[in-house]
Design a protein that fits this description.
This protein is α+β, with helices and mostly antiparallel strands and about 210 residues long. The protein has helices at about 20, 25-40, 40-45, 65-80, 90-95, 100-105, 135-145, 145-190, 200-205, and strands at about 5, 10-15, 50, 55-60, 115-120, 125-130.
């Protein structure tokens, strides 16, 4: 429940982020806070702070107009905070996965994308685009232990590939031996390789000239 305090010296309001919104992830909590701060005008950004799971807005009593505007902006953002798309670093922390796993499972479709987002890096002209993820889908992955299943599947595929290398090498060697044996057999059956009876007589009579 948001709390408002006005003691004549400072205006204060606090919002507590639910575990449904944060997934118990400190990275997700910080990401939500940064999203809330981005909704404020530059002059009010520093007035918003994060204390654990509490988002705190504190401003001097003399800035009541700015405080009310900032409070309205945060309230509006908080209304849909549980549906805020999850960004890459957040999903890695929530699911306990590495960047390589995220890329692999995203590429093969096991980790569904909810679309892409483009942002401009602070102080730079460069923009980056990345995939975001639906919180409901991420919750489902957690509930059914999908990550553990995917890791088992990947380990099995990797083991099969390792076993396949020597097997293919063995097949190659076997095929080569078969080809060599066949070649030797063909050479043995060639007339030139078979001793000819009466060769000397043919040669003496000049029949091969």
């Amino acid at each position: 429940m948001p709390r408002i305090q006005d003691d004549g010296a400072e205006l204060l309001k606090t919002w507590t982020l639910s575990s449904t919104a944060t997934f118990g992830s400190s990275v997700r909590t910080k990401g939500i806070f940064q999203e809330l701060r981005a909704r404020l005008v530059p002059a009010s950004k520093k007035a918003l702070s994060l204390d654990g799971n509490d988002v705190v807005l504190a401003m001097p009593a003399s800035e009541k107009t700015g405080f009310n505007a900032a409070m309205f902006a945060v309230n509006k953002a908080m209304a849909g905070i549980e549906d805020l798309p999850i960004i890459p670093r957040e999903i890695q922390d929530i699911l306990g996965i590495k960047a390589g796993e995220r890329h692999r499972w995203l590429a093969d479709g096991r980790l569904p994308s909810a679309g892409t987002r483009t942002v401009r890096l602070n102080g730079r002209a460069r923009q980056i685009t990345f995939h975001v993820f639906d919180p409901k889908v991420v919750q489902d992955l957690l509930d059914r232990g999908a990550v553990d299943e995917w890791r088992v599947e990947d380990a099995e595929v990797k083991a099969e590939k390792r076993q396949g290398v020597p097997y293919r090498a063995k097949l190659t060697r076997t095929s080569k031996k078969a080809r060599d044996a066949k070649g030797a057999s063909n050479r043995q059956e060639t007339p030139a390789a078979v001793p000819l009876k009466g060769w000397e007589e043919f040669d003496i009579d000049g029949l091969l000239r």
